[in-house]
Amino acid sequence: MFEKIMIANRGEIAVRIIRTCKRLGIQTVAVYSEADARSLHVQEADEAVFVGKARSAESYLVPEKIIDAALKTGCQAIHPGYGFLSENARFCEKVCQSGMVFIGPPAAAIATLGDKIASKALALKSGVPVVPGHIGMLSGLEEAESIAEQIGFPVLLKPAAGGGGKGMRIVSCKEDMKPAFSACQEETRKAFGDPQLFIERYIANPRHIEIQILADRYGNVIHLGERECSIQRRYQKIIEETPSPAMDPSLRLKMGTMACSLAREAGYTNAGTVEFILDEDRNMYFLEMNTRLQVEHPVTELVTGLDLVELQLKIAYGEVLSIRQEDVSFNGSAIEARICAEDPSRNFLPATGMITRYASPRGGSIRVDSGIVAGSVVSVYYDSLLSKVISWGETREGARMTLINALNGYHVEGVITNVDFVNLILNHPAFAAGELSTRFIEQHFDNEKAKIPPSTERLSLMAIATTLVYHNRQKLVRDSLKPMAAHVGGFERPRSWYHYMVKGETDIFELRLQGNPDLRTWTIWANGNQYQVITPELEFYRRRIKLNINGQSQMFRLQFRGNFIWAAFCGITRVFEVYSPQEWELAQFMPKVQKRVLDNVLECPMPGLVVDIRVQKGDRIYRGQELVIVESMKMESGVASPCDGEVLEILIEKGQAVDTGNILMRFKH
Ligand code: ADP
Ligand code: ADP
Ligand code: MG
Predict the structure, then answer these.
(1) Considering the domain boundaries, does residue 118 fall inside one?
(2) What is the spatial distance between Cα 519 and Cα 293, in angstroms, rounded to a whole number?
(3) Are residues 663 and 610 in the same domain?
(4) Which of 26, 79, 206, 581 has the fewest Cβ atoms within 10 angstroms?
(5) How far is the CA of 651 from the centre of ligand 2 (A)?
(6) Catalytic residue among 12, 44, 87, 288
(7) Which pLDDT score, from 0 to 100, does residue 592 have?
């Protein structure tokens, strides 16, 4: 086996390749740009070489710099990962000319398959059905119009050199062809430096299903089953799974066999993926072949038990494929969610910044492939993919639930991500039913919001988590003040139940908590429905909390600002406001947006302990009079009356802990 290889990539995929190398005892060399000096892949590799400026065109995309760095560090081979130089035939050629091994297919196969027109022609030759259209490049607008008439609208204009969903345009009628053609050509030239376009029929509501293949240098070609990647935005995948809910053994056999014969025809070696779309009548059409390791390869690994990077290394080293088609078996179900630095509420625009806090999910059936840690900087220079969360289950439903729970606890702070958006998709009834299509998101979502509202049950659980954490925080603070309270002669009357009002944007919840805090068990009524809840010990300061509700473990993410609490659960995000019944009653009269300036109540200006109350109910008071003394940080401060009037109600007692904004008294003018 190789002793030392270079990984000509960055981010999660570089880290993932290094992991397999470590297991196999292969030394690794990373490359990094100015923007990546502190990145995880640099820390994980045995060595790292600086290759230039932050812009990929000046670092990761310069073949000479990469090859030079590999030769200088004594590497025997280069793994290109995905993206960057992975599908660059010239790079592959140069690596081989320099005496190293390119961990991927031969340059000729990359060149043929990288051109979508050439690969479509090859597919036809190997007996693989292709999307109806014109196999050839378009000479201009006129040809586009006449071919579109022949195959029938809607049609899809596509860049021949395409990738990453860039440039494609749907054209639904003749009038739209002209603007679409020039827009597509323009974008294609910019993205690929090659303006060649071709045209295909636009298949309505298709599913994207692809076949993973492996081929060695001795003519052995096998497939590892399919992955369904229908959940896409901007023609880019965000959730992938295997097996596909649309698959049956005969279709798998047919697709698998076709993918293998295409690979054979192309003289392919190493790992590759043949992409198809399936129309509503279950007709399959070849889309393209990707000549590299795919982002979504982990789902295949979880159900086949194989390590694709290990197999890539072995094939590249010249080994014979040790597994035959009949040795490949599929166990259970796996789903992957891509976590990207992007804002779903702003049309998935990329987001940047520094990851200031990072807690990733853990668990037996969970795999996280991540390129980030706390302190990582997400810059504008590279792909927005930060990490991938992959789950396994005996059934699709099992894998789905495991992934939902994992995402519930995935906490990334400092950079906006799509973690709650992908979670919302996984929770959607149509996804649960396996009713997928590449138009899933536009069909079921308005921007980042699902068209169906969240269930009341889910919101109730969120209100419970929010209130419990709020309650326990308050209690811990009160407990810490007990010695001081005793000193001034106050004590808190033990109570057996607590009452809260919770406002969750559009919903209002009335919560009654009855509990034994020592046993950490609670009975909670939320709008009359009863729940049994077990809380963890001493966890109420965290941003994530795991509660056992009616026998099931549930993870919530929470962020506090006074009694305003942002919560995330199953893709639902909400700001909740928690009130005691007295505060709630007052809150009803507060102006909605304006800052409240109330002169009929006494508000607490700071956190502390009530050491003295200088008036009684019914007393006449005057503006500026000290009514309550609060002690905080070794300092006593008087709280003065905001008005002249009469004390209507005193809401506190001596020895009680109070916080900024708490209402201490009510007045009558
Ligand atoms: P890329 O190289 O960008 O991956 P693909 O040809 O693989 O381009 O297409 C990407 C996605 O675009 C597919 O997964 C599918 O959702 C959509 N797509 C491509 N071709 C068609 C088509 N003819 N009809 C409908 N959707 C298509
Ligand atoms: P987890 O590992 O479960 O995600 P965190 O690491 O987020 O938990 O919480 C631990 C630390 O974060 C503690 O030091 C705590 O003080 C701090 N912390 C938690 N929530 C907040 C918050 N809302 N505001 C400020 N600091 C917080
Ligand atoms: Mg594709």
Answers:
(1) no
(2) 51
(3) yes
(4) 581
(5) 31
(6) 288
(7) 57
